[in-house]
Amino acid sequence: SVDCSFSRGVCDWKQEADDDFDWNPADRDRGDGYYMAVPAFVGHKKDMGRLKLLLTDLKPKSSYCLIFSYRLAGEKVGKLRVFLANKKTAPVWEQNTGKDERWRTGKIEIFQGAETTNSVTFESERGKGKTGEIGVDNVILISGLCPED
């Protein structure tokens, strides 16, 4: 497995240049490192911020699982979507409401055909809310199918 978490991960993360705002590091409650977050008050409704994970060395014709922690804290905070580079048009994962402020786990299967996926993009879309945040943490890439819960 490959640790792509932000504090000590080995992966290559890039802020996209042609979006509306950047994701920012936020300190974890426990004080051990940080996660990436978009506070609710940044930007205008429907503005987007994209954080891209560059993937190298993924073998063709094999399966991977991207596991990550996320939270949508606050009312009408917005949407969190995940896109794979070779399927740009539709998100492979989307969440737009947080029932509470708890962290949850997201999983995405990445199947490598002849064309390999060379990046995963986490996209935050600003909602109407003024408080809370959208956060992503503990991003891990493992080979094989995603484990059952």
TrEMBL record:
Top-level taxon of origin: Eukaryota
One GO cellular component, as annotated: membrane
Residue ranges constituting the MAM domain according to the UniProt record: 2-148
Cited Gene3D superfamilies: 2.60.120.200
UniProt-listed Pfam families: MAM (PF00629)
SMART domains membership: MAM
PANTHER family named among the record's database cross-references: APICAL ENDOSOMAL GLYCOPROTEIN PRECURSOR, MAM DOMAIN-CONTAINING PROTEIN
Protein name: EGFL6 protein
Native organism: Neopipo cinnamomea
Lineage: Eukaryota, Metazoa, Chordata, Craniata, Vertebrata
